[in-house]
Amino acid sequence: MQQPLQLWTDTPLANLLSRAQGVSSRHFARSLLFAAPSQKHYDTALYQNQQKAFLTLSVTGSACGLMCDHCGTKVLDGMIPVKSPARFAKVGADLVSGGAQGVLVSGGCLDDGSVPLDRFLDDIARLKEEGLTVLVHTGIVRPAVARGLKQAGVDQILLDIIGDDDTIREVYHLQRTTEDYRQALAVLREEGLAAVPHVVVGLHYGQVRGEYRALEMICEEGAAQLVIVVLQPIPGTVMAGLPSVDAADVGRVLAAARLMMPEIPISLGCAKPPGPAKKLMEQYAVDVGVQSIAYPLPATVRYAEEQGYDIRYHEQCCSVL
Fold first, then answer.
1. For residue range 40-76, what is the model confidence (pLDDT) as tens digits?
2. Distance between CA 134 and CA 10 in Å, rounded?
């Protein structure tokens, strides 16, 4: 249900956090998962991940047809390139023999906003047959691809949901509208796939623009889970050097997500800017009562323990609960 924007921007943050935590406590146990997928090294005095437990594959290598201002293909550089079915099959077999627990299949987008997964559906199905947890980033998914992924038995579909037309055009360089993103969620629902939409706080050059509308669309179309991530200015991109998103804005979006969707598990994902703001963002996530946080700071772990949370770790995506 659409709510006035002022409800989220003008209400004192402490009030929103308190209300959200009350809702969380009625629907979820007081436990918290800390996720540390092995595509990024994570080593604190409290936990250390393994290098091959969960990795990310890119079906386009480092290529993307959009060159989004916030990414500029830099995110693809950290993925394993699998640009042909033969290469995909070889890497997949190596992951299985190496004891991997799961994989995220991703890649750059075509100029229509979709990830070109068509050629890889059989290989994705083979990973499931081998017992891996398989997550797939689809972009704006076409129905035929969604049906193929359903037949392959994938565990989750990840996709960004954007609630502002200007952001779609100016940041993603994509001639689409918010209704195209809504339709992508509808396609996943109709095919019976577990949709895990991501909302990027500050995606419009650090400004909060369409985040609350994106949450409303997710609420209206339905989702299995929700991941909130935060703009992380990346060196070498158009947005390099932007100041950190205000932690209070992240706290407000997290609280709004919980109040809009009381029964949907919520995660604070891996993309977060470094520095003091990150600590506050993660503490707000604990205050709201999210179900998982990716790559938490040690201070966040201690804070959660002080708040009486039961803590557990794993090395897959934060959406794998």
1. 889 998 899 987 899 999 999 999 999 999 999 999 9
2. 40
CA–CA dist 31, 17 (Å, integer): 17
Q: Which ranges of 98-210 would DSSP assign to H, the alpha helix?
A: 121-129, 143-152, 165-170, 178-190
Encode pLDDT of 146-159 as tens digits. 999 999 999 999 99
Q: Are 9 and 252 in contact, with CB atoms under 8 Å apart?
A: yes
Structure tokens at 303: 């804070």
Separation between Cα atoms, residue 253 and residue 16, nearest integer Å: 10
Structure tokens of 120?
């890889």
Q: Check residue 246 and report its DSSP letter.
A: P
Q: What are phi and psi of 180, to 5 degrees?
A: -65, -35
- pLDDT tens digits, residue range 75-101? 999 999 999 999 999 999 999 999 999
Count of beta carbons in the 10 Å neighbourhood of residue 298: 11
Percent of the residues in the chain that have a pLDDT greater than 90, as a whole number? 93
Closest CA relative to residue 252, chosen from 260, 244, 241: 260
How many Å from the N-terminal Cα to the C-terminal Cα in the chain? 27
Residue 304 zone, left/alpha/beta (φ > 0; ψ -120 to 50; rest)? alpha
Following CA atoms 108, 122, 155, 158 in sequence, which dihedral angle do they give, to the nearest 10 degrees? Answer: 10
CA-wise closest residue to 267 among 307, 225, 214, 218: 225
Task: Specify the pTM.
Answer: 0.96
The whole-number pLDDT of residue 1 equals: 52
Nearest alpha-carbon partner for 301 in 25, 34, 20, 29: 34
CATH of 5-314, one of 3.20.20.70, 1.10.10.10, 3.40.50.300, 2.40.30.10: 3.20.20.70
